[in-house]
Write a structure and sequence with these properties.
This protein is an alpha/beta fold. The protein contains ten helices and ten strands. α4 packs antiparallel against α5 and α5 packs parallel to α10.
């Protein structure tokens, strides 16, 4: 998973990486010589086997159950699938321990705690702002409350208008979104890479009524690991400065 690969490098263990997915792009310089083993859903088992890793890092949302089972039968596997920021912080600590980077991770964990406290303080006396967070466009899809993205939105001061959807990543009709009266529509850079052209088109056509349409870095909302040390603050700042006037 890209955020896990980035985290390994940020913790100073990049030289231990022997393989990663083709979606792992950060840090670019640190991954220049790392073997690509395919995608998260279609890894090359033969290529992984040739690397003979001493530890395999997996995520149950990104990797297929059958691939995880195959890996577990051959090598030590650390599976981390956090669905909240607190779970992600615990997972970060656990990963650091497995990489013998317990001291290196401490500043990241402290910065995460500081951003959580700052976000909570900034929202005192203010209610959450209704937000539609789009993860896909054709069809429109979002996230419910049982997701990491939802928890980041909550911490940032947003009320996720799809929180009560039965599916974790629900398809949703625009009419249903409008019925929730979102004040802000967030259009992230991944997994659907929304562009300014699309944002302008949606705004021009008033697809989401009078809601403010904002492009955002999806990594700040969906990448856990060391990215949270700065990403949580950026997410909270974006929501805060985009609030409609009282």
């Amino acid at each position: 998973m890209p955020s896990t690969t980035e985290t390994v490098c940020e913790l100073g263990a990049g030289t231990r990486l022997v393989g990663c997915t083709r979606y792992c792009t950060e840090p670019a310089a640190g991954l220049a010589g790392v073997v690509r083993v395919g995608g998260t859903k279609n890894p090359s088992r033969e290529r992984i086997a040739s690397l003979d890793p001493d530890l395999v890092l997996v995520n149950a949302e990104e990797n297929r159950i059958e691939d995880i089972a195959w890996l577990r039968a051959r090598w030590p596997v650390l599976e981390q699938t956090p669905r909240s920021v607190r779970q992600a912080a615990d997972a970060l600590r656990e990963l650091a321990e497995r990489l013998d980077a317990a001291e290196t991770v401490t500043p990241f964990l402290l910065r995460i705690e500081a951003q959580l406290a700052a976000a909570a303080t900034s929202q005192l006396g203010r209610g959450p702002v209704p937000v539609f967070y789009a993860i896909w466009r054709k069809p429109w899809m979002s996230v419910n409350r049982d997701t990491f993205v939802h928890d980041v939105l909550r911490i940032a001061g947003a009320q996720n208008v799809c929180a009560d959807a039965p599916a974790r990543y629900p398809e949703i009709a625009v009419a249903d979104v409008l019925g929730q009266r979102p004040a802000i529509v967030l259009l992230p850079s991944e997994p659907w890479a929304f562009t300014d052209v699309e944002r302008a088109e949606l705004e021009r056509e008033r697809t989401f009524g009078m809601a403010r349409l904002l492009l955002c870095d999806g990594r700040d909302f969906c990448w856990h690991g060391t990215r949270m040390a700065d990403g949580l603050g950026r997410a909270a700042e974006l929501v805060s400065r985009s609030r409609p006037p009282r």
